[in-house]
Amino acid sequence: MVELKVKNILPGIAPQRSLIHVMCQKAKLEAQYQAKQQAQASEVLDLKQQLDLKGNEIRSLNSTIENLKGVNEELKVELMVTFYIEMSEAFDSEHLL
Questions:
Q1: What pTM was estimated for this model as a whole?
Q2: Does 20 or 30 have the greater pLDDT score?
């Protein structure tokens, strides 16, 4: 009679252990999934910040390029004026002699 009761109890315990094992595995996988999701969210945030920094750097460099183009144009004009003045002075000194 005791053997019969043990046999009847054991089949009930096995599914419970299996269910507990499955629930533990599920909890472990959920924790891993959340950790991975958080890591990826952190990485995305970091990449967005890097992208913003690069965008700011590009805007700054474009502004510098435009400023340098303006300075270059000013230097060209000054060079042409200087050249014209020197040529004019050279021409006048040749005609005065």
A1: 0.56
A2: 30
